[in-house]
Amino acid sequence: MRDSKVVEVFGFSDRYLKWIGVFLLSLSIPFVFHDTPHTRSLSEYFKQAGIAFGYTMVLWIIIRELMLRTFSKYEISDDATRIILQVGTGILFFSIVISALGTALEDCMVEKKIGFANLLRTTVLSIIISIAVVSVYISGLLYLKLIASITESERLKRQSIQSQLETLKNQVNPHFLFNSLNTLASIIPEEPDHAVRYTEELSRVYRYILEIKNHQLITLRDEMDCIRAYQFMLETRFGPNVKVNVNIPSDCMNKYIVPLSLQILLENAIKHNVISRDRPLHIDIVAGREYISMTNSYQPKLEVEPSTQTGLENIRSRYALIANQDIDVYQDAEIFRVALPLLSISE
User: Fold this and answer.
1) Is residue 159 part of a domain?
2) What's the whole-model pTM score?
């Protein structure tokens, strides 16, 4: 039962570890803490080692239980001071108690007089053994946490890279480029000045995509610069049939979101909904203290365009991995809304 508790708390089993540790300590203690080891008989050594074995086993079990109770209650990364105080106090208390009992037993077996010096020496021995036991469990715990952290970091790195590649694939695709160039070609003969502006905004969008490919988070201000450029392109392409309304307080602009998340949502709204003079698409981008949401009128196309279904999941997975937060998706017969957490980064 307690073995499973050790695995739960520390992440590893000490079934064999405690026996090996007790055995090695019991063999070492007679050499270090007893007088004249070179003149001691073999039988006397094994007698002292036997006492040390029982003494160390009792102390190991007590300190092990103390560690289990402490680490079940506190997290080492958040409550290190409490852990040190509780474990340190426990070590001192149990070392004195066990030393008093152990000294009396040892003096009887090896026929020595009980004295304060012997009690003090045994107490010091108890403290050293206790610290050794604590070090074993904490070292194992920290080692496994380090391995887990490295593994998670590598997984996050791989996932982030994959997400970036998926994002670029979703955004810089032939369909998007074809529509952009087709729109540009249609306005060059009649509105050359507007075509120049359109080309500038198109280059701004692509430049932004390329610049943020190595960023896990981006400020809302930078993301909205891209959205405004993209909005201009949509208004050029669809005219009044697409209406984008933006309401973002200035104090939200320094918050962070995952890159290209708003652009993916905006492109999805264009891709999956009917857009016409009779049924214009309304899109609202609104930010609050903790979330920014994009809401579009829900008017799905009868013939749905091919989709990889990775855009929304791409955003969700990046938020989960980077910030351990989820996005909120809501849909009814009239609207489709996605709310993204606004993140803060401590300096």
Assistant:
1) no
2) 0.55
